[in-house]
Amino acid sequence: MEFNLSENTTMVADTARRYLKDHYGFVTYNEQLNQTSHCDPARWGLMMELGWLGLPFPETVGGYGGELIDVAMIVRELGAALCLDPYVDLVVAPGKLLEYIGSERAIGLLQSIVENNEKVACAFYDCHAGYNVHKPTSSIREGKLSGQKSFVPDGGCASKVLVTARLGEELVLLVVPLESCEITRYRALDGSRYADLVFHDIVIEDGMILSRGAETSRVISQVVAWLQALDCARMYGAANALYLRTLEYAKTRKQFGSAIGSFQVIQHYLVDMFTDLQQLESMLFMVSVKAELGNAQERDRACSAAKAYYADKAVKIAQQAIQIHGGIGVTEELDIGHYFRLMTHCSLTHGHRDYHLDRLASLSEVNGRG
Amino acid sequence: MNLEFTQEELDFQKSIRAWMRENVPEALERVSALGNMPTKSQQQQWERCLGKQGWLALTWPEQYGGPGWTATQRYIFDIERAMAGAPPTSPFGVAMVGPVIYTFGSPEQKERWLPGITSGETLWCQGYSEPNAGSDLASLKTRAERKQDHYLVNGQKIWTTQAHWADMMFCLVRTDPEAKKQQGISFLLIDMKTPGIEIRPIYSIDGHHHLNEVYFTDVEVPLENLVGQEGMGWTIAKFLLTHERTTIAGVADSYYALARMKQAIEDVPYYTDKPSARRRMAELEVELMALEYTNFRTVAATDEGKPFGPESSGLKIKGTELQQKMSQAMVEIGGLMSLAWDSPSVVGNESFNNAPRRYNFLRACTIYGGSNEIQKNVLAKMLLGL
Ligand SMILES: Cc1cc2nc3c(=O)[nH]c(=O)nc-3n(C[C@H](O)[C@H](O)[C@H](O)COP(=O)(O)OP(=O)(O)OC[C@H]3O[C@@H](n4cnc5c(N)ncnc54)[C@H](O)[C@@H]3O)c2cc1C
User: Fold this and answer.
1) Architecture label for domain B124-231
2) Locate the Acyl-CoA dehydrogenase/oxidase N-terminal domain: which residues (chain B) (predicted)?
3) Which of A235, B124, B202, B289 is exposed most, by the fewest CB atoms within 10 A?
4) Predicted-complex ipTM score
């Protein structure tokens, strides 16, 4: 067993950290919060130069064949920097989906993502189906798509969307131009841009259906596993940033003539944050390896365990960071509260704590490894 | 031991319930039902309505405009108020400065300020905290120099809730820079329209503007606005902090929050996670019950005329922790629906859409009113003898 990152992965992480330090800070974040499009062309170009657009994909489409852990190390840095660039939502998620589908049409579309000709979002959820990605309420009847999707993280800049729908008994995946949908855009809890889509009898032509049947369910589960692992990576980055900032603050903020870090209760809070953070890091390594396994059961167990743990402990770290900052911690002026919102956000995407504990319990029942 | 209300109390409850049904405006009820906060005019209209009835200054002695109710009646009133979807009363006038004025103020001060509080006409804010004096209030620096017929105030306050709404501020100032920390502090009433006062908004992480910074530059405050004697500010501040408040634990509003949660869970027809959501709610209900019965004991003790001591710190700790847990549960049960931050239309369920704002705001409740860590220090010292 070894817990060391490969040289390659370490390099990816270091580069990401340096890139963000040079090109993204709290000021940029605040500007981006107020913009409706989150795909800054200059930064997107830089990400392309860094190789991020192709990183997780095969060389045959111009990618680098990177592993989930490589992407996770980037996303960790994005979380640490509060960066809202929709890299995961518009590159990793649709890209992996298309790669796993693997048809000529799908690979063509993947290629255009890698080459930065196309921004594609994924629409897995709608507010009438909870976290169940396999039973969408939208459907295709007589060649027309109707229904709706909610919580589509499109960064305010996608032009196409990958949509799940039912066709008779089958689950299908389609690619739909965004302009053919009725769109309501809004800001999500973490500051990112979401869209709700309504489909009014969109005529479905042959090329639009990318995948059908059990295969669709399988590839979506695979991609959702990636996204669950990446949620953890983003939360880890944020939790670590919160810990470092809070530790620093506790050493400098004086009350009653001493640094608040000299009060034992604050020391214990910080020690709790530190020890939780260690365990969160272990869980991140674990899930970054297991979320791309072929064995669905082991994969899902790992993802659910990690997300349930993060929803508990990383959120707790964010709460403590605010508490230790006192009044200043609950203001928009300081980054602490923004990290807190990011943390709450990520604890709810792709399954919240109860969902994952329930799933874990049922998976454990099946394989008896409880 | 009798844990039930008497017949008289039940009749009282019935009459209050009927009154609430008649008098709580529908718009206000809707604001509460969604977990939002009322606007200034909604809040003020409601407090004036209570004031007209003589029900605003609930805890006050009758001679100053209180309704003369027992603590149990006040408790019943509070539950009925919350369950009718009416917001709690702003604490600054009624719960804070009012009792200070009728306890320490001169006859002129009582006559001048108390009627505006009991009628809900005058809005107050609390100027205690400063950038370097939060938990350690006694290190405050805002200076009030005594001149011929006024104090000259210079300095800065921070975290002043509703300073932008307020007509008046009650303020702790340093009148004697030579005296030891606690001793040189005095309690002043300051008209917010006085020249030299500047208010700067602070936005909090629920996205709203409740908080402010307040700057004083050569602000002239008449000498008659000093409450008690010069240097008595710390005694008054401490009196105010432990002043009897049967609503400190927020039991009534937590009951209302629980009812809203129940409603929201039932309103979502497809919801697959209902069993775990209901279990979560049951857990909170148990905690609320423990808090309620602890609160009952203080209510009963108050009815027997016993003073309300450092136990109020215990209620503050448990009550605020529960408020945070409930708001967090609401967000988490909402799941994806809680991700909508400023959607122009409802995404799934509006209560769940609004849940994160309240959750964000309530991170502050373990910080304000004396942080929970400070409350624990107080308990350790005063009750446990540590
Ligand atoms: C929403 C909100 C509304 C408010 N409204 C008002 C208002 O209307 N008027 C007003 O005057 N003030 C108001 N306050 C200010 C509030 O009272 C202070 O924020 C609070 O007293 C804490 O002070 P601080 O923010 O400076 O934190 P600090 O005092 O810097 O504390 C930081 C952290 O250190 C801990 N700590 C400090 N000292 C000790 C110790 N000795 N032992 C253990 N732990 C310690 C604290 O518990 C906290 O966790 C409000 C605050 C908020 C957040």
Assistant:
1) Beta Barrel (2.40)
2) 6-121
3) B289
4) 0.96
